[in-house]
Amino acid sequence: MKPTFLIGFMGSGKSTIAKLLADDFVDLDTVIVEKIGMSISDFFEQFGEAKFRELETETLKSVSTTHQIISTGGGIVMSEENRQFLKDADVNVVYLEGDFDKLYARILADKENIRPIAISRTREELFDIYQHRADLYDAVATHKICVTDKTPEEIVKEIQL
Ligand SMILES: Nc1ncnc2c1ncn2[C@@H]1O[C@H](COP(=O)(O)OP(=O)(O)OP(=O)(O)O)[C@@H](O)[C@H]1O
Ligand SMILES: O=C(O)C1=C[C@@H](O)[C@@H](O)[C@H](O)C1
Ligand SMILES: [Mg+2]
């Protein structure tokens, strides 16, 4: 079976769903955190977003196709290089698409995982990013699943159909 990448906005459940889909999964944010030895939010503070994006691209290219399921970070589609990589690879790219306000509520509630992109912005600013990224997710996705008001188990079933 082809490897499957999960893409989508912060809070759409990429990391949650990846774990449920297969034992052989990898989460790119987790790999980056292991590499840098600090949280993503501390890394943003010390080194900035541009450095994080470099690491993200490097990690995407190095670990990806050796696993069955790969959950990406919400900003993976920001780079043309990453989008091209996903388009060229012989893989499934599943876009988990959800209602902005529901995802925003989850992001704010998820105290274990602080998203620097979200906490440094107002709801309106983040909504602009969500709208901009929606087109980019669409452009690389081979499949799209609506996650609004669905349990992780329901989403897993849909992906496996
Ligand atoms: N279908 C769902 N229903 C309810 N809660 C969910 C669902 N999917 C994920 N969550 C919760 O939403 C929060 C964010 O989920 P998760 O970390 O999997 O998102 P993500 O897409 O990986 O985000 P990021 O892009 O920041 O990595 C977590 O607290 C998770 O438990
Ligand atoms: O949407 C984003 O830009 C991000 C999402 C997270 O998964 C992390 O990759 C990081 O916090 C940036
Ligand atoms: Mg995640």
UniProtKB/TrEMBL annotation:
GO BP of this protein: amino acid biosynthetic process; aromatic amino acid family biosynthetic process; chorismate biosynthetic process
Named cofactor requirement(s): Mg(2+)
Residues that, per the record, bind Mg(2+): S15
Protein residues bound to ATP: G11, S12, G13, K14, S15, T16, R115
Known pathway: Metabolic intermediate biosynthesis; chorismate biosynthesis; chorismate from D-erythrose 4-phosphate and phosphoenolpyruvate: step 5/7
The protein's assembly and partners: Monomer.
GO terms, molecular function: ATP binding; magnesium ion binding; shikimate kinase activity
InterPro entries assigned to the protein according to its UniProt record, in alphabetical order: P-loop_NTPase, Shikimate/glucono_kinase, Shikimate_kinase/TSH1, Shikimate_kinase_CS
Record Pfam families: SKI (PF01202)
Bound cofactor: record note: Binds 1 Mg(2+) ion per subunit.
PROSITE patterns hit by this protein: SHIKIMATE_KINASE (PS01128)
Entries under CDD domains matching the protein: SK
Gene3D superfamilies on file: P-loop containing nucleotide triphosphate hydrolases
GO cellular component terms, semicolon-separated: cytosol
Protein name, UniProt field: Shikimate kinase
Primary site of residence: cytoplasm
Function: Catalyzes the specific phosphorylation of the 3-hydroxyl group of shikimic acid using ATP as a cosubstrate.
The keyword Metal-binding is assigned to this record: yes
Keywords assigned: Amino-acid biosynthesis, Aromatic amino acid biosynthesis, ATP-binding, Cytoplasm, Kinase, Magnesium, Metal-binding, Nucleotide-binding, Transferase
